[in-house]
Amino acid sequence: MILTNLTLKDWKHLKHVTLSDLVPGINVIYGPNKSGKSTLAEAIRIALVDRDHSSNAEDVKALEPWSGGDIPTAEIGFVVKDASWRLAKCFSKNKGGGAALYESSSSEPTTRDREVTRQVASLLGVEDSGKGIGALLWPKQGDAALPNVDQPLGDALRQLLGVQISAGDVEFQRVLAERLKSWFTPNGKPTKEFSARDEAAKEQRKAVEDLREKREQGNRLVSEHADKKTEHAKAHQAVEQTRRTISDLESRVRALEGRKQQIKDVKQQQNENNEKQQGVNSEIEGLRAKSDAVKQAEERAAEAATSIEPLKLTLDARANDLKLATDDVTRLEQELKALETRKARIAAIQQRQAQNNKEQEAATADLADLKRKSDELTQADKAFTEAAIGVEPLKKALDRAEAALKEAGEKVTKAEAADKELRKLEARAQVLRDLANLETALPRIREALAQARATEQRLANLRQELAAIGPCDDSDKQRLEEVLDELRAVEAELSAAAIAVTLVPEADTSVSIKADGESRDESLNARVPYKVPVLQEAELELTGWGTVRIKRGEAAGTLSEQRTRRDKLRRELDALRVKLALDELDQGNWVSELASRKATRQSKVGEAKQLAEDLKKQVPEGVEALESTLQREESQLTERKQAAGLEQSASVAEALAALGDLSAHRSEVNAKLERAREERDAADKAGNTAAKTHLDADKRAQDLKGKADAARGLIEDTKKRTGGEEALNKRLDTLADATRKLAEELDKEQLTEEERRLPDRLNDANTARDNAQQQLDKSQAGHKAAVEAHEKAKSAVQAAKAVFEAEVMRTGGEVALRARLNDLQKAAATRNEELAKLQLTPEEERLEETLRSEREALKTREKRERDISDRLRQIEGELAQFEGLHGQLAAAEQKLAGMEAARDREKLDADAHKLIADWFKEERDKATERSMAPVSEHVQRWLRILNNSDGASVQFSGESLMADSLRLAERSVSLETATSYGEREQLGTLVRLAYACVLAKDEPQAVILDDPLAHSDATRHRRMLDVLADASKRNLQIIILTCHPERFDQLLGAKHFDLEQAKTIS
Amino acid sequence: MAVEFLHIADLHLGLRITRFDESVVGKLQEARFQALENVLNEARNRPTAFALIAGDLFDDNSVDLATSERAHNLLNSFPCPVFVLPGNHDPLCAGSVWHRTPWKHLTSDNTVRVLCERTPVQATVGVTLFPCPVTAKTSHADPFEWVRPDGHVAIRIGVGHGSVMDRAQLPEDDHPIPLDTPARRGLDYVALGHWHSERRFADDRMAYPGTHEQMRFADAGFASGWQAYSSKQLDEFAGAGFGNALRVTITAPGAKPEIESLSVGKFRWREERREVMNADDFNRAFAELAQPDTPTERTLLRVKLTGVLPIEQIARLDGIKAMLSRYVWHDIEHASLSLAPSDSDVAALRGRGMSGRVLTRIESELASSADPARKAVLEHARLVLYRLSKEAEA
User: Which ipTM did the prediction report?
Assistant: First the structure.
């Protein structure tokens, strides 16, 4: 569209403005601020496309003249597709309002009123100046940004730029985008659901790993059990070995006890023997002393015979005292010896008591252990019982749920049975319907077959007719025409070049002509000239006249070539004639004959094709197939009727009607079935929940039972080892009894106070004996003094002799004493030998200590065996909990395998879709880039002018077809974010013009720039003028509205309008 | 003195299978019991002195109580004594299934007996069993080590579970059994378990019956989830066994056993490989599969397609899968199948513009890419592109 003129009346503050003869190139309309330039630009937009004359829009209301006046009126002249148009709009809803569109100089409008706006929009391809093409070409003042590409602009650009986005691609893109939503959000991130499925698979893997770890734990327990079992066998062996060692040591210790007693006895005997020997020796000495004393007494008796007697009496008394004292000592010593034996017995009892106490302690410990385990068992049993009690209601709930499920299942079965019955009826109805269809279809098939046969016959006829038409190949025809033309031309040339020899015979005659290699005979009439054309040479043999030879010179060599050419063409023509089966004589009609043949053929081929198509439409499967179909269906009808239990003559429709309307029954049955299935599903779900709850509880109960069994096993083991609580108690009683008995024994053996004092008494006796001895010694001394005194008295000697004899009598004399001493010495030697034999070895001396350490070792080993045994039971108990793990793991792994396979499939699917989407976008961008080359070229050329440098380029958004960014030398600039407003305005104008140039490819376009380049520096402004000039040469009308006309003076060929002047002209 | 008995092994009740859907897993596990019932019927229908289960009655010691009890009840219903040997999957160790209910309460009144000790057991009059129970998953020891040759007054039958060392590559810790065991140990017959297909050795004096119910596809690349507890996953477990039991007859001490192989299995695990080069091959392959040589309700079918297939045929796979749904389970693996669009498809796609160019790019990268993961994505992308195009066309 190109604007040619514009008139505004009573338009806002403009009373009257007329701009006439706007030029197709650049128009600069100038005026000061507020002179109405923008109003003018707005008026074009409003009047042309934006508003009907009766619009209620605010901007229309605002058109009212400010200083009052008539109705705002706009008249715009424009040219579209070489046709001139005039638009007149009076903006009012009242009587004076209206609109009209006139074509060329017609005085009658083509359109009126509201239709005008739509008609203009259609002519210009602009519906709204604020969007798409309108916004691109007629931007508002200061609007540097480019508009979005709407449908009309996009279509126009695509059409003009040849952007290859097929409808298939658009649909493909839509389908692809729809699919991608399953996995990705609009910004390309995985959707929550997609991620959640991946997470679920990971969680399942974790669950599987946990179960596998549990299985490994089980395997470790099995290994540990095997190891512990070996350890237990060893520990048990060690305990048994130790028990045997202890038993052996005990018997050896017992055996040593006897020997020790023997040694003690022998030593005791030796002591006694020594004492006896000492006694005998002292008695021998005493005897000797007494003998000496007798001698001395006899000597002293002589000296003191008279004093001997009293002294002798004293001496006797003293001797008697000594004897008594000595007897006392001897008796006490014997008693003491007896006492020692009893003490040994007491020690033995005390030892047994200590042993007894130890056993009691052990038994008490076992009893406590047993009780502790028993308590544990009670607790475990209690826990199990509680759990088992807990299971019971769950079991009942499960039973109830199962019963409900069964009931629901029965309902479903019932409903399904009804459904099945109905299906049978429906199936029969279907069969009958099919039969009815078949019955209806048969006549149609028969008719179709008849028609098809007729068509087939016509087609066969037509094909025969076609075969009868001669050849009419296009290329042959063309060649024929060419050859004919060429031949005609060559022959014309030849005939033009030929010498015409005219024969005028006087009388009728004949001539034999042989011209240029062709011979013929002609009859000549008298005086009728006959022309013989001769090219090169001719021989005319005239009857009765002779032969005339004519020959041309060699200079005419080209004639020969032409002739050769003619001959060649004739041969070719002949060949073509034969090939095309043309009548030799009818050469003039050859071409028309061929054309006619072709027309006939085409018509017949068309007809045949039509018939073949008709036939194919009538019977796509072929006539034979239709025939066999007919036969098949006829026999089928018979068979199926029979199968459906109908007589051949019976009416299918009646049978069908007899079945009645099944659909109502169907919906009822379906509803029932659905309800029953829903109930069953609900029951099934409830059953599953109950089963799971029951199973969990049961599992827990089983676990607790396993623990209880383990505890029971431990108790059984302890009982086996200890014989049980009863046995232990019995043993404790026995031991207590033994303790009591030992105490009693000890009491019996207990020493009396007197016995305890026995050593003191022995000491006392010894002292008394020593005192008696001293007394005796004193008496003997007195007696000796008396004997000495009796020297004078012999009686003292007699007394001494009596003492001595009494002593001899008592002791048996020295010989007897010596013999006794000898016996005692022999006995002592024998005891020494015995003692030597009985002497303990060092090992025997350590035996008891060894026994003690072995007993300690036994305790340690028994404890170890018990510990291992406990651990074995514990492992067995723990392993009982692994029952069913195999199935659980398999189920979890199966679930995981399913989830991972599904995830992998989904991921592959998502990746493939993503790949396609990415590549599709790249391809689309590339295609856009290619298609946008014209815009790109304009922009690049103008950027070179503007920046005075090369290397600028522009990138487009594949989606919107709009320039995304510009690359200027080394930097990339987005149109929205260019650093300076001036630059943004320049670049925006430049890109706008580039698009406008593309839109103006086939039809000029008017670009209205309201106060453009207001922020450009002088240099760039000057360069932009060059750009505008260049753009105006590319089918663009540029209308510049400015308050700085001098800035556009350099625009060559631009027409300038003074707005103030335009206002004054009326 | 002739004796006739049944020899089965490796029942793997409570089998761990993870590859299949839950419903199929249930069927496969159930089939193992049904196959055992077939053995029971065999024992009922013909005179049978006793039945031997030479190890791995259970797939694991931690099978659930229901499986354990069901096996116990089923074996107890046999008309003849049943002797069960612990195998390497259910070894006689701590936490063993044999130490739990109901097995721990077995008495001499029960038909079924667990051979827990290495001590001769009289199976019936004139027949002595020499059981070699397994106590750990692996062992380097010959299980029959303890058996001493003796004068042949009774028929002597060894019962063991392990690997017959008939080739050098076998692991040494898999309960090794020398090839000359029958002669060396003076045994008339050695009833073995462990290997999953039927095998006979030493002039039929030693035999594996194989699993009584097939449990794997022969292709080791297809993981069913089951794993042998041996230190090495041998071919012997790969699953050529077709579900057999052996009926063994020994007429007298020293006489050669007569072995009859009986089919007791329920499901057949069928694998088919088909190479297709065009739509006709493809149609033919599936037409053949639609006419199975075993009843579909007793067959698991796995089809591996290789070759080249017109891409539009892939869309038909869904229909074909529906056709194969009569099988207990089926899987069509077509990862090795190159999908080739027809010329008209290619032309149509290329003519489409950008999506056509994307196809060209995919095919170009497919031809040059060596990374299998990338190739898989590209292959799939080609298929997706094709499908999206068809959808867009519609």
Answer: 0.86
